[in-house]
TrEMBL record:
Residues making up the signal peptide according to the UniProt record: none
Enzyme class, UniProt record, top EC level: oxidoreductase
Family, similarity comment: Belongs to the 6-phosphogluconate dehydrogenase family.
Gene coding for it: gndA
UniProt name for this protein: 6-phosphogluconate dehydrogenase, decarboxylating
Assembly behavior: Homodimer.
Tagged with keyword Cell membrane: no
Amino acid sequence: DKAQIGVTGLAVMGRNLARNFARHGHTVALHNRTTAKTKALVEEFGDEGAFVATETAAEFVAALERPRRLMIMVKAGPATDAVIAEFAPLLEPGDMIIDGGNAHFADTRRREKALREQGIHFVGTGVSGGEEGALNGPSIMPGGSAESYESLGPLLEDIAAKVDGVPCATHVGPDGAGHFVKMVHNGIEYADMQLIAESYDLLRGAAGLEPAEIAEVFRTWNTGRLESYLIEITAEVLAHTDAATGRPFVDVVLDQAEQKGTGRWTVQTALDLGVPVGGIAEAVFARSVSGHADLRKAAHGLPGPARRATEGSGFADQVERALYASKIIAYAQGFHEIAAGSAEYGWDVDLGAMATIWRGGCIIRARFLNRITDAYRADPAMATLLTDDHFAQALGDAQDAWREVVATAARLGVPTPGFSSALAYYDSLRADRLPAALTQGQRDFFGAHTYRRTDRDGAFHTLWAGDRTEADA
Ligand code: NBP
């Protein structure tokens, strides 16, 4: 029998996706540059389903039913191009190459265009959920042509996570849309993690709680509106004790956060699109600051606030409100970026559907995402999530607590770039007037960059160096 799908690149992700397809009753052709990995997979897991192990590219392609569905799970970057160059000449019009690696959406657009000229569908696909998700049900974000999704969609929906019976996979949009959405998903993940980290730091630094006590606070939060995978694992990590020293695990881990680059891409892309994603940017920069051991060493010992007050028992509740409000902001910024990308590249992404497919499988899975889906269902053209009834009310309820938490952090010297920037974004959007008017005045003064007026149309320039009369520009 011919295979319904083939997977090339059998490291942790490819291997687990292949097993997931097989466990769902699909015949899976296997291929890997190093053939030992292919053999090992069949030896260890061959009884889980129908696998066709192949060694050469020609054998692999020949093992697939037509139209062929060939999934690439190799290290994103030059390896992806190398694998495409190897297989594309062996394929026929109508065949599909699915790239499930973490490719940059611009690379996906380039590859899709090149392969389209050969009649091959290139399906850049975001896959979230790591190793575990790949095996038991990831969140899947496929781009590419609608036609390819007709053939591929049922397979992807089969292996995806399910929430309330709904698969966490849907066609995102043409060419690079899937990888773009996966990129922003990761950016939001950065922001979410940063906000949780700040909450922990505040409960520790301002309320004086121990990690085990903070774990309990997170466990309680996880029974409410903040219920999510990230809050759940935060409690687990904080409750963990280091076996070697008997100290809280979080105290023996070097405090320098690393990153693989998707958060940075989200911010770089947002800058290109002119979308303010301060919450995501602050999260990326917070990791960067933590990693600058040299700067931190040089600055260590600089003066801080004299005050050392400890916050009372109501503080945790205030932090919960600040966290929820800031999380709403981070998601609103991420969704704004997806909307902007969709408009720029003509993808027509269904924003509500993105929240739906993130409910399971992926790292940012959360009860809260249902609210985002509801919000976009109620008003697909909403300019910002913040004005949705539920979110507007939550932001309203959070006002005093959110401001108190940011003020407390500033008074006590606990760094909260995520909370602070989220609040500044909120206050900027809701302001009657912004000091951007002054910025425009300065720009006109030093560079004759002109300005618009509130009371009539047109562009104007004031003769700053002359008699300061105003001229039409
Ligand atoms: P890696 O990213 O570690 O890649 C290893 C695979 O790439 C192996 O199969 C290796 O073959 C193959 N490969 C390389 Br490297 N260079 C190659 C080349 N020039 N030609 C052919 N094959 C080549 O694997 P991974 O961690 O399973 O991730 C796979 C993809 O999934 C990546 O793009 C990653 O970003 C993405 N992703 C990973 C996660 C995660 O949690 N790990 C989550 C979501 C997405 P070999 O065996 O012969 O060396």
